[in-house]
Write a structure and sequence with these properties.
The complex is a heterodimer. By secondary structure, chain A is α/β, with parallel strands linked by helices. In chain A, 28% of the residues lie in helices and 23% in strands. Chain A has a single domain (3-233), classed as HUPs (Rossmann fold, 3-Layer(aba) Sandwich), CATH 3.40.50. Chain B has 3 domains: 7-119, Butyryl-Coa Dehydrogenase, subunit A, domain 1; 121-229, Butyryl-CoA Dehydrogenase, subunit A, domain 2 (Beta Barrel), CATH 2.40.110; 231-382, Butyryl-CoA Dehydrogenase, subunit A, domain 3, CATH 1.20.140. Chain B has a 4-stranded mixed β-sheet with strand order 1-4-5-8. In chain B, strand 2 (139-143) and strand 3 form a beta hairpin. In chain B, 52% of the residues are buried. The chains are: A alpha/beta, B alpha+beta.
Chain lengths: 278, 383
């Protein structure tokens, strides 16, 4: 079973800085980490691989330092890392990002499953995963909290034959999709794309062997030169969404603290609530 | 201070620190209270390959040596000295097999110890034989292709939890210290049972039990090295493992200092942070300096061992003695800086102090370490 995991490197702090000219995130010089939701996607991929064998490939689009995120995923047990990095891709919105990632996935070729985190902790859009599935025209299930059943055709025995065409019908997965009230059970043919929520698993820590292997591993880097994507569909200029303005909402005014004897301050509070709250 | 660690050593440090912060710190107080063996943490250490550090590559380990073992132990100890010693004691129980095991023994036992599937323990101490190790009474009598073990070991770290034990027993009473031998004994061997679990002052997350041998029959293949080598096995094992105890002390001291600095910055008295008072500043400065001196000694000693130096007894005794005395002082001062809060169990300072004390006692009391150092000094002088 071949799995592709799409991850994003995000700033470690919640204080995201914005470039006032382009209205995009400033990534340089900020301590980074793998988007927390993507960690569940990585863990799930490693677990599926342990069960069904096959190959796991992690991809990310970002500046050169995003390589660190790929190595971190590989330290957890992912086989291969591909970095999509080029100035030409900078400033991509979710549409251009999902176009670019889906084009890379086409270039990679055979896969049974694409896993993404449900959303990124910086942009919070939750659009890239579904966008990729739309570009690839494959089924998507968002907010997956459990993989319930996998067609035995995908067992270790047969994982060598990941025939893409024709065999789709008898390859399926049954998953639980989280909703606000509970969950839905959805069955989907493969290949498919899932975005996962934190309920699905508990990501493991890396192992020393994994870290050493990841450190020595060669990361594949693809730029526009290798990918030859439609220049109208990539980067800031290829993005249909243009951010006009980003601003920090004014901080909430601080609370008021009354001091004094309890009966006295209770009266004060009651008065205030009467007058101020309607 | 920059100890010019290699990328590999930094990786061990980073991983062990991550485990300590994310997995151990949140449960340290729980295990300290319950005294239960922290199997869930041992599994994490196993999955993360930390048990592979001290086992050679040929036998399923990573062969990363004593300095890496010290770095890992130090980081784990900064979060919980008790949980860290469960790990370090497995290394202690494994070293005799690495140092003195024959090919067959190494192949049989080391892979499972490296993967963390099994953990190990080392058994020397007896009720009547502590610092005077030559007073041990447990006997191993040869009968055909077997040895029959009889006697009681006590205060055995990982006792009852470990699967593989290195046990020192007397094979020839007439030969005194040269009459002891080392054996590998597996849990589950008929005649091998466990006595009471001790209630300890500190390192309470680790388990300390009695081992009881009653006509326990073990195959002769389980003899390590040769008959009569028991104390050589012990001394050489301790030479390797003492930097680990020192690293444990170092981690405990560092953990306590971190708590003290944080508290000193937050605590307001006389209208300002107590970290602005020179009295507190000087205590913190002394603590930090002593820790750094300890670290320099421990790392140097570990590097010396990894470089293959044969004669490390004195240096490893120095590292163990200095680091553990330092840890006792630093943790006591940390409690002092936290004042009344330091004495309360809701704050971790008192736990560091309780955990530190044992490092001055086990794997040779610090008085015994001083004997080793002095004897070696006198020997060197006589040359």
């Amino acid at each position: 079973m071949n799995i592709i995991i799409c991850i994003k490197q995000v700033p470690e702090t919640t204080e995201v800085k914005i470039n006032p000219e382009t209205n995009t995130l400033i990534r340089e010089g900020v301590k980074s980490m793998i988007n927390p939701f993507d960690m569940y996607a990585i863990e799930e991929a490693v677990r599926l691989k342990e069960k069904f064998a096959g190959k796991t490939t992690v991809i990310t689009m970002g500046p050169p330092q995003a390589e660190a995120a790929l190595r971190e995923a590989m330290a957890m047990g992912i086989d291969e890392g591909i970095l999509i990095s080029d100035r030409a891709f900078a400033g991509s919105d979710t549409w251009a990002t999902s176009y670019t990632l889906s084009s890379v996935i086409k270039k990679i070729g055979a896969f049974d499953l694409i896993l993404c985190g449900k959303q990124a902790s910086d942009g919070d859009t939750a659009q890239v995963g579904p966008g990729i599935s739309a570009h690839l025209d494959i089924p998507q299930v968002t907010y997956v909290k459990k993989i319930e059943e996998i067609n035995p055709a995908l067992s270790t025995m047969e994982s060598g034959n990941t025939e893409r065409k024709g065999g789709v019908k008898d390859k399926f997965m049954r998953v639980e999709r989280m909703t606000e009230e509970g969950y839905e059970i959805i069955e989907t043919p493969l290949p498919a794309l899932f975005t996962v929520v934190k309920e699905i698993n508990e990501p493991r820590l890396p192992s020393l062997r994994g870290m050493l292997r990841a450190k020595q591993a060669r990361i594949i880097v693809w730029a526009q030169k290798e990918l030859q994507l439609d220049s109208q569909k990539i980067g800031l200029s290829g993005s249909p969404t243009q951010v006009i303005k980003i601003f920090t909402p004014p901080p909430r005014p601080g609370g008021q603290i009354f001091k004094g004897e309890t009966p006295e301050i209770v009266n004060k509070l009651v008065e205030l609530l009467k007058n101020e709250v309607h | 201070m920059d100890y010019l660690l290699t990328d590999e050593q930094k990786m061990v440090q980073e991983l062990a620190r991550k485990i300590a912060e994310e997995k151990i710190r949140p449960v340290a107080a729980k295990y300290d209270q319950s005294g239960e063996f922290p199997w869930e943490i041992m599994q994490i250490l196993a999955q993360s390959d930390l048990f592979a550090i001290f086992v050679p590559q040929e036998y399923g380990g990573m062969g990363l040596g004593v300095l890496n073992l010290c770095i890992a132990t130090e980081e784990l100890s900064a979060a919980c000295g008790g949980i860290a010693v469960c790990y370090a004691a497995s290394a202690l129980g494994t070293f005799p097999i690495i140092l003195f095991g024959n090919e067959q023994q190494k192949k049989k036992y080391l892979p499972d110890l490296a993967s963390g599937k099994r953990i190990a323990a080392f058994a020397l101490t007896e009720p009547e034989a502590g610092s005077d190790a030559s007073a041990i009474k447990t006997t191993a009598k040869k009968e055909g292709n077997y040895y029959i073990l009889n006697g009681t070991k006590h205060f055995i770290t990982n006792g009852g939890e470990a699967a593989t034990y290195t046990v020192i027993a007397v094979t020839d009473k007439t030969k005194g210290a040269r009459g002891a031998s080392a054996f590998i004994v597996e849990k589950g061997t008929p005649g091998f049972t466990f006595g009471k679990k001790e209630e300890k002052m500190g390192i309470r997350a680790s388990v300390t039990r009695e081992l009881i041998f009653t006509d326990c029959k073990i195959p002769q293949e389980n003899l390590l090295s040769k008959e009569g080598m028991g104390f050589i096995v012990t001394m050489k094992t301790f030479d390797m493992s003492r930097p680990g105890v020192a690293a444990q002390a170092l981690g405990i001291a560092q953990g306590a200092l971190d708590v003290a600095v944080k508290y000193a910055k937050e605590r307001q008295q006389f209208g300002k942070s107590i970290s602005s008072f020179q009295g507190i500043q000087w205590m913190l400065a002394d603590m930090a300096t002593e820790i750094e001196a300890g670290r320099a000694l421990v790392y140097s000693c570990a590097r010396e061992i990894d470089a293959g130096s044969k004669d490390v007894g004195k240096d490893s005794a120095m590292a163990k003695m200095f680091a553990s005395d330092m840890a006792m002082k630093v943790t006591t001062d940390a409690v002092q800086i936290l004042g009344g809060y330091g004495y309360m169990k809701d704050y971790s300072a008192e736990k560091y102090m309780r955990d530190a004390k044992i490092t001055q006692i086990y794997e040779g009391t610090n008085q015994i370490q001083r004997n080793i150092i002095a004897l070696q000094l006198i020997k060197e002088m006589a040359k």
